[in-house]
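pipeline: protein-struct stage 2 | run 1193 | SDR family oxidoreductase
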Amino acid sequence: MTLGIRLDGRTALITGGGSGLGLAVAEALHAQGAAVAILGRTKAKLESAAEQIAAGGDSPVLTVVADVNEDDAVTDAVRQVHAWQGRLDIVVNSAAPLLAVSALAEADEAVVSDALDAKTVGYLRVARAALPLIEKEGTGRIINIAGMAAHVLVPNIGVAAAVNAAVVALTSYLAAEAAPQGVLVNAISPGMTLTQVWKDRHAATAEAKGITPEQVRDGMVENLGIRLGRWARPEEIAAAALYLASDLATYVTGQTLQVDGGLGKSVI
């Protein structure tokens, strides 16, 4: 058996595919031949993203407007994607809200509950809808985007830590349950990644402090002790998703791949 990175003939669904990491993952999978469906809540954003994705290859691109907080909408969206190409091979859960920044002990309970529902339970909704339809002949994949907050203590992001830790646990249990069907379930925990959301935050902080956005980023790198000395590019996280989606990862399941530039420093 020849193992490779190409995804020709396969269909991928990426939630949150209209921007950020979801868009980067969609571009990476599409560039390797996958037919890509991107799901999100805003039609205009999805259409703009679809044009960007389509420019990178010849495979088709589909936009699906749906909210991962709504069971019926998720079920209908997954069925639509499956019917589009007559198959569904890869599901990437990337849709997530902006999570609150505060001490965990001071976080409003509703904020925590809403964050868990929007990300962790949202991922479960999508996975649950996809599993009956996803290919069982060796190409079935579910990839969940978690976050390094699940593994590393960073001040004032306890809500994100709790949510992402739940995603890691969800991934492990889904992997065990899907293994008899030959479906692989894994997660990625990105480190500090320079998406547009973070660029906007850096610009705002820089303006308030009278420094440059680059100085803001460099200060965070130093304070967090990121060993590679820089932020990740979205395409570097997407490359990890491409690996997990491909035939190079046929013996990998139940794992959380930490793509963090050396932010995490566990000995084992």
